[in-house]
Amino acid sequence: MTESSARPIAVFDIDNTLADTAHRQRFLESKPRDWDAFFAAAPHDPPLAEGIALAVASAEECEIVYLTGRPERCRRDTLGWLEAHGLPEGHVHMRRNADRRPARHTKLEILRRLAQGRSVRFLVDDDELVCDAAERAGFTVVRARWADRSAALEEAQEGEGRT
């Protein structure tokens, strides 16, 4: 099977799309932000039922790809969390440890790379700026609005390029 004839790709963010980060957002509310504690608590994230159900259903027709702003150093915990919550297998794209660009830039760059020779069915993400950028670039977007919004997390995603 050639790349162009493969199943379409469904791309899923993780934090606040599949995993509920509410319990660890307190680490982002202090100055300085405690990024080590924020990411160390990720394995304890409860699953978000709406996102999990969409990922599982999408796997029937699509290849699943995970696109997260989490740094590469969190790969083992992230893979363990995905497996523990019964998510479909799929390649996980993570931010390089020292990459501090806003998520709207890093994720769009990876989406464009994925779309070379493959059909991207849709992106599912909670970050409105990522969703806006993806839509402007011609991608279909499902806005994950099933988790509580956090001003501290939104600031971190855009201003500090940490997640």
Task: Give a verbal description of the structure.
By secondary structure, the chain is an alpha/beta fold. It is 35% helix and 17% strand. The chain is built from 6 helices and 5 strands. It has helices spanning 35-40, 49-58, 75-84, 103-114, 128-136, 151-160, and strands at residues 9-12, 63-71, 90-95, 120-125, 141-143. It has a 5-stranded parallel sheet, sandwiched between helices. It starts with 8 loop residues before the first strand and ends with a helix.
Judged by helices, strands and strand pairing, the structural class is alpha/beta
Distance between the termini: 35 Å
Judging from the principal axes of the Cα atoms, what is the shape? Answer: globular
Mean pLDDT metric: 90
**How many extended strands?**
5
Largest sheet: 5 strands, parallel
Q: Which features would summarize this protein structure in a list?
A:
163 residues, alpha/beta, 5-stranded parallel sheet, globular
In short:
By secondary structure, the protein is of the alpha/beta class. It has helices at residues 35-40, 49-58, 75-84, 103-114, 128-136, 151-160, and strands at residues 9-12, 63-71, 90-95, 120-125, 141-143. It is built from six helices and five strands; from the N terminus they run E-H-H-E-H-E-H-E-H-E-H.
Topology (SSEs and partners):
Elements: E1 9-12, H1 35-40, H2 49-58, E2 63-71, H3 75-84, E3 90-95, H4 103-114, E4 120-125, H5 128-136, E5 141-143, H6 151-160
Parallel strand pairs: 1-2, 1-4, 2-3, 4-5
